[in-house]
What does this fold into?
Amino acid sequence: MFALPPAFEEKMKKILKEEYPAFREGYELPRKFGLRINRDKITPEEFEKLAPFELTPIPWVDNGFYYGENDRPSRHPFYYSGLYYLQEPSAMTPANILPVNPGDKVLDLCAAPGGKATELGAKLHGKGLLAANDISGPRARALLKNVEVFGIPNSLILNEVPAKLAENFPEFFDKILVDAPCSGEGMFRKDPDTAKAWKPEKPLECARMQKEIILRAADMLRPGGMLLYSTCTFSPEENEQMISFLMKERPEFEILSIPERYEGFASGRPELIEKEWLPSELWEKDIFDDLTEEQKISLKNCVRIWPHRMGGEGHFLALLGKKDENGKLPEMYFYTGEEEALRNETIPTVKAEDPLKNVQKEIRKEKKGKKNRKGQPSSGELPTGKKSGDLMPFITFAEDLKVDWDFSRVEVRKGQVYYVPAESAAVRGLVFLRNGLYLGEIRKDRFEPSQALAAALKKSQYRNTIDLPADDSRILHYLKGETIGIEPEEAENSKGWQLLCVSGYPLGWGKLVNGLLKNKFLASWRLS
It folds into this structure.
């Protein structure tokens, strides 16, 4: 029988009562494996036609699938092209429920390794801003990789404490997700080592951190915005009690009802904030007395995911709204526009009037010693004070990109070229790993495109492409960093930079010379 800490079992018997035997038996069932489709690159319907795995839709996640334990999706080329993210099914729920729409400014405060951040970024379809933060440096680097694999161009990857972020971003974000560090009780079946390391004091230790995190997040949310708080634990002090604490400390917040609740979702438990459940080490005994009856009842709007009721591990989530200046709560709104059009515009396709012409004019003027007499830069022009000659290698490369660049957003930092988000963010004084899309590096008089740029492009946005099927053995050799042979009819151009695609989806760069594609796939991303 699956071993559980005795103190944990006693607590769960008290919470679940007559439901506890079914909960306990659930630990003898095998765990579920899930993958979540990158909705910015492909639809679930399109992926089902391509996928080599046996997939079953996850009922409560519109772009999630179960896959078989014997499948190996982490070694398939589609994984490296960013078509999906491997994620525990219940953990997909918070980012799926938070109603992020193109143009929003979104913060994932405790984001590593990126499961929820990649979904939030995909929902933006390249419009607005995704700020993803983690306090751990190594975890933030893993977060950066996953965001880049997903091809999210409008991201800001941060490595800061919440207090420092709150100083820079007061009431700045439209939507915030707080997947708080927790005692992990809901993941015991998935990770037995977590159960072995659990101790009765762990929920209290985590709750002390969560109090600081949730208040800082609340202060970064604009009036009229939404905050999604989640944990993967069952402890009341980390769940219903934490939401009650927020409502007491920030009375402008109310719990919103989640639309289209899946039948397996269990409601939050208002009785778990009664005095018998309040640990004196964490809360004053009367801390929740000031809550109104309506506030207490509203805790039923929270969601508990129990592993014996659903095909996933344990989770808790609460969707909260922050009242605006008129005392109104935000309305639930989910974008229902043309997904295909948005996917094609993550980096907008070039318009009829090529913006490169404007930039090339500026370069010619500089060479003649003339100054640009225009005022603020428009789309396609270089910002005031930027030497367009410094960008010439990138400009030359960009002639093969069918992209509507706004060159006022292109920055060069120590030879590295970035495309910063249109939504500006106050990053001065903050530790960040990336601000925008890393385009590549200028080395002497040549430009080398980045892996991140390849992931962010659509096949139609680069002139020279090579498209191979997923079962072509050369794809695996390429992913391992090897040079591969290309037949003349497989390349649109016989030499130079090529965007290698797998079944129509970009994988990475290579340089074609005499029928051989020299491998430029990023070493740290390679298949081992």
Remarks:
- The chain has a mean pLDDT of 91.
